[in-house]
Amino acid sequence: MHRLPSSLFALAGLAVALSLPRTASAQSDRNREREREESQDAQSRVDTTFSFTRTGTVELTEISGDVIVNAWDRNEARVRAYAERGRIRSSLSSSRLSLEIEPVRGRVGDSKVEVWVPVGARVTARSTSGDVTVTGTKAQVDARSTSGDVVVTDATDRVIVESVSGDVRASQLSGDIQSESVSGTIEIRDATGQLRAETTSGDVSLLGVTSRSVYATTVSGEVEYDGTIDANGRYEFHAHSGDIRLGIPESANAQLSVETFSGSLDSEFPITLPPGQRSTGRPRRFELTLGNGSGARIIAESFSGDIVLARRSRTTR
Fold it and tell me: Which of 94, 98, 104, 292 is least enclosed by beta carbons within 10 angstroms?
């Protein structure tokens, strides 16, 4: 029988010895990779800049953090987002930016989304319990939150600004404007176009408005309007337990219908009741004429609040 040289036995033993650590090392590598994946699930970040068209679309969805959209004069988009315990899903191209933060094992932790996009990009932004802010896009905006505040500045075309239990503030708007809240206030300034604002237990303030179609309503808050009265316009204001204050241009020509049950009517304009109308009784209803009475139609109704007609110093269209 031929015997292997002792050197071969030594090499064979060395090979076996080396194979054991490799197996353990491979298992250790897999464990580290698994830990790395779990760490990525627990804390995810995006920080990138890429080419983006001025007519692109932006879709952002948050759960517990704020969403901030800024506009700049570049053909680029920048995205900065993080989720302490959530996962960020994103789809980024030259014409579409989509980003959503999802919970991992039911948790998101601290999170935030902030993006910069070219002026002209159309934005849809959502948050469940965070604030939403969209500034300077000069394009279509749909911004909503469940329990956070929503702020939109300098938007056009179709603008939706909504929050369930947060406040809504918007300015420098034009187009078809819709604003809603359940338990928050609504304030819209310097707006042009069709305007609709509805809340349940907050105030509604529409200031510096140029429109021929306005509808504003609240249940337990007050309504304030300061704006133009278009000759072909219709303006409707409703409150249940709050006052209604209307700032109307002195040169306005309109038919004004006023109704209140337990409130009063206070007017800086001369009021002449048509024959047969009385200022007593409940509810108190008035059909009034402003100017020559042609053109616009104004309706103001409050159950227990006062109705105030004030002169607006700005010049109507």
Answer: 292
- Distant-in-sequence, close-in-space partners of 273: CB < 8 Å, separation ≥ 6: 279, 286, 288
pTM over 0.70: yes
Q: Please, are residues 53 and 119 in contact by the beta-carbon 8 Å criterion?
A: no
Report how far residue 43's alpha carbon sits from residue 206's, in angstroms, rounded to the nearest whole number. Answer: 42
DSSP class of residue 104 equals: B
Is the preceding omega at residue 283 within 30 degrees of 0, hence cis? yes
**Encoding tokens for residue 206?**
């529409």
Give the list of residues 6+ apart from residue 15 with CB closer than 8 angstroms, or none: none
Cα 18 to Cα 5, 7, 29, 255, 297: the distances in Å are 20, 16, 17, 97, 92
The string over 104-113, giving b where at least 16 C-beta atoms fall within 10 Å of a residue's C-beta and e elsewhere, is: beeebbebbb
Q: What is the pLDDT of residues 166-224, one digit of tens each?
A: 999 999 999 999 999 999 999 999 999 999 999 999 999 999 999 999 999 999 999 99
CA distance linking residue 151 with residue 256, whole number of Å: 33
DSSP assigned state of 200: S
Alpha carbon distances (Å) from 100 to 41, 58, 141, 165, 249: 14, 11, 17, 22, 47
- The residues spanned by each domain of the chain are 119-312
Contact indicator for 99, 80 with CB cutoff of 8 Å = no
At residue 95, φ and ψ (nearest 5 deg) are -125, -5
For residue 33, the surrounding DSSP H or E stretch is helix 6-42
C-alpha–C-alpha distance, residues 254 and 249, integer Å? 11
